[in-house]
Amino acid sequence: MSISIKTPEDIAGMRIAGRLGAEVLDYITPFVKAGVTTGEINRLAHEYMVNVQGTVPATLNYAPPGYPPFPGSLCTSVNDVICHGIPGDKVLKNGDSVNIDITVITKDGYHGDNSRMFLIGEPSVQARRLAEVTYECMWLGISKVRPGARLGDIGHAIQQHAEKNGFSVVREFCGHGIGKVFHEEPQVLHYGRPGTGEELQPGMIFTIEPMINAGRREIREMPDGWTIKTRDRSLSAQWEHMILVTETGYEVLTTSAGTPPPPAIVQPKDSVAA
């Protein structure tokens, strides 16, 4: 496994990319409400990225081997959609939950990748709890990041918290290294055993983006070749941050004015300001 260690120049560029990615989510937040289509959210975000920020939407026409080009400038995954939901004519309604996943590419070629959950109107108790626990899972994983730790430490913390709360962890999709390449090594699994996997080193940058299901963990792929849903049609939730391994711990790169603060379950001593 060849994991790139980012240079100080790379890290400076990734800080900018991360902030810009988070600011797109800030911008669209007021528009994510009942009655709006996922296509309209996509349009608004696209115009903001291209015309205001001068960034490029990384997902638009993204086509890894075996996949058709992705048609959206972001992913909108509603209710039982786990990930890669294609924006379109889906109208958000009261009680829906939606993950919006955005990646920008800066003029210098760096990627800023992050996602947040949005609860529409009055969500069910289960939807709210799932979003909260998934957020805690992400942050518990982040809190394990430091030089000398192992990737398995991150996955174990996430899996333990999800399953303790009666939820399940999707296995088929994971976090990933990122820089001038959208997806690179390492793969960051959201389950695992402590003390296993690659050792973390200062200068590594990767995403932590657990996908947690209210029901069973099994998935099904839709005919469009992208959309992934829960096989049992239960709700799914996801949050994502982009993390730098520092000399002493970690730095969350995808922060902005509107970024939600760490949850109470993560102690202040574990958290490092960006």
What are the defining features of this structure?
Creatine Amidinohydrolase, 274 residues, 25% helix, 4 helices
What does this structure look like?
By secondary structure, this protein is an alpha+beta fold. The chain has a single domain, classed as Creatinase/methionine aminopeptidase superfamily (Creatine Amidinohydrolase), CATH 3.90.230. The protein is 25% helix and 22% strand. The strands form 5 sheets. Strands 1, 2, 4 and 5 form a 4-stranded antiparallel sheet that branches. Strands 3-12-11 form a 3-stranded antiparallel sheet, with no helix packed on it. A 3-stranded antiparallel sheet has the order 6-10-13, covered by helices on one side. A hairpin with a 5-residue loop joins β4 and β5. α3 packs antiparallel against α4. The C terminus is likely disordered.
What order do the helices and strands come in, and which of them pair?
Layout: H1 8-28, H2 38-53, E1 56-57, E2 75-78, E3 81-83, E4 97-105, E5 111-119, H3 125-142, H4 151-164, E6 168-169, E7 175-177, E8 184-188, E9 205-208, E10 211-213, E11 219-221, E12 228-230, E13 236-238, E14 241-245, E15 250-252
Antiparallel strand pairs: 1-4, 2-4, 3-12, 4-5, 6-10, 7-8, 9-14, 10-13, 11-12, 14-15
Helix pairs in contact: 1-2, 3-4
